[in-house]
Design a protein that fits this description.
The structure is a homotetramer of 216-residue chains. Chain A is α/β, with parallel strands linked by helices and 216 residues long. Helices cover 46% and strands 17% of the residues of chain A. Chain A has a six-stranded mixed β-sheet, covered by helices on one side. In chain A, strand 4 and strand 5 form a beta hairpin. Chains A, B, C, D: Belongs to the beta-class carbonic anhydrase family. Chains A, B, C, D: Keywords: Lyase, Metal-binding, Zinc. Chains A, B, C, D: InterPro entries: Beta_CA_cladeB (IPR045066), Carbonic_anhydrase (IPR001765), Carbonic_anhydrase_CS (IPR015892), Carbonic_anhydrase_sf (IPR036874).
Chain lengths: 216, 216, 216, 216
């Protein structure tokens, strides 16, 4: 491996030095306290890896505010304590039981490549994702139950519907974790489902009473 | 589940509207292109969920630049295509084979709760993490091989050494993925290992020639 | 001093720009009138500096509604026109004689660090607050008469009782100001005593007939 | 006193119930934690009592973010540990030594009645403020040194100049407190001077290098 590790590209080095001389310097006192006393984030946010989803910017959040897990298509698997390593479940467990976050937010988004891939796979257009060796395909299997909910819709609306249904499915899966359920039922945490439209900058939230996502 | 989903707290709603009216509006043309033409991130970054690791800020990165996967302790498991869902492996596969990122960056950090938990577990001080039902414990098992590398060091230096060794282990594990190896050997991608010190704002990178992390 | 003044942290700068582009823009016409014609607040509120007491939010108050004085433990000293500077007395005088507010509200709260400190001081557990150089201790001396009223209560109830008695003492002290007394007796102003419970979101008001604080 | 305390006006009662049913409910989990674990505000803000200065709104701040002291004309007196009660000095001491805030912000504003009164007093137009019994006059004496700095300016610019000079004087006075000086020199806190224009919604910050307030 060693021969393949390279110095950081200079454009990132320069930007880091710029951050250090400005933002870091302005906030040094607070960042030191965060280091010394530990984090106390108010919310956990589960978002997609997609480079266009700029979570902290959208919510004006600085260091220390959001415990952030990001995976492809912002999915949460169902509770399954089989002893294997489950990165998402571990992050949720840590946020709820150790950090005791007050809000658990699942943030979906438009033009999601993962959701698109799942839709292609479920409609038979992506056999490569159905190969056992495809990590992406195996991961997106978590979204298959959501596809079942949208497959009767008009075809041109299915992708966006699947992006939103995926958020709902993740919220449902969150409730299968005993510690999540306990935190919510005791009033120590609330659940939130969001969908962000990249191009328009829109933000919709899931309204469980209507079953729809509504513009914030 | 439905009765447990709540409206987004109003402080986030107003901050979102502020972002929409300023940052979004200033960048609308570009964000629309990102939506229409898809993302084309230059780098993938694998960082910790910790709320104090503000990846985009440190590198002055705007929407579209970083494909970001964040999990507890910024770990990458070894290649293991067993058909189960592996969020980290899926994210790496997507970044390398679909997005063809040019840089793959693993970013560790100081005061990492996950690393601290692994150290406690490996030294027998965290039996609760060794329970089969602990997702955090199962996840941190990925870091055990790194602990083996640092356990002979002076005790007071082990935690920081483990934070850094974890980055190296993740880089090594990345090389076990055939598509990562292929991308690197063909010159299409480079690997980078970083460690960020929260309190001082420092950033060190792994130098494979000396085996040490060096201030950037 | 000059070398110690720094630029505002960027997270506050971006949030300010967000406010300017949304809340300010929506309310510009009114804010301009408030600037041109002066404030005409209906009430003065005397509250604690505590960051958890979000006065405007609790009462849905917008710009121009509350003349707000905030000090440690929401205390009002007795009338003492000795020519020295007294920030609280000055604020009360200005509100009553210049602004002619219709309501004068003292708002106490639970988990008050100042009240806790006074209790510790009065029970001999905080000698550092009794040092002549402690501004906090000297300030909290204003609350000693209230301690005298609660010191015979069961120990575990004394802190909350002192938080509430402090509100009553401040109301009593307000009545020692001739201009306050005159405004009230002429029917131009009314007095109100409140206590806010941070965790439950509760709000109680002092009922002088029963001598108790009662849930609103 | 008792016969003068009245029930809270119903418009405030209704708004409180509205807040309790909405904002409180959305944020209950976090507010409970703030109650149980205590506040950890990042900044102290010293602002004017003026009802048009809506500090939390301008900065998108929710409960727990700002330790807020508000007095007439946002003044800080010089260090003077004479054993008397000094509300501002006590608030500063508590913020710096107990809460260890990272930022100390003095926020002045346009159309400040206190500054206007001081200017009138200093130019001989407000004899009533020079009476020994005037708390407002005695308080505004703290601003006299600032008047000395602006009295040679063209008359029509003196008021705004005095509003800004008052912020600088308060920053200077803050540096006379040994614990403030120590916190700043050790890098644990930074000072910030702001001036807010009510009508235009503008925000300027003091730049010690130019000596001027500059639009943010």
């Amino acid at each position: 491996m060693k021969e393949h590790v390279r110095p950081l590209p200079s454009y990132l080095v320069s930007r880091y030095h710029g951050w250090k001389a400005t933002t870091y310097t302005e906030n040094r006192a607070w960042y030191r306290r965060l280091a010394d006393e530990g984090q106390r984030p108010r919310a956990m946010i589960i978002a997609c890896c997609d480079s266009r989803v700029h979570v902290t910017s959208i919510f004006g959040a600085d260091s220390g505010e959001f415990f952030s897990h990001r995976n492809i298509a912002n999915l949460v698997p169902p509770y399954n304590p089989d002893g294997d390593h489950h990165g998402t479940s571990a992050a949720v467990e840590y946020a709820v039981t150790s950090l005791k976050v007050a809000h658990m937010i699942v943030l979906g988004h438009s033009q999601c490549g993962g959701v698109h891939g799942c839709h292609a796979m479920c409609t038979g257009h992506a056999p490569e994702l159905e190969e056992k060796t495809s990590f992406v395909g195996a991961w997106l299997n978590l979204l298959r139950p959501a596809y079942e909910e949208v497959k009767e819709l008009p075809e041109e609306t299915q992708i966006e519907a699947l992006e939103k249904q995926g958020v709902i499915t993740s919220l449902e899966n969150l409730m299968t974790f005993p510690f999540v359920k306990a935190a919510i039922e005791s009033g120590n945490m609330t659940l939130h489902g969001l969908w962000h439209e990249i191009g328009s900058g829109g933000l919709e939230q899931y309204n469980p009473e209507t079953g729809a996502f509504e513009q914030i």
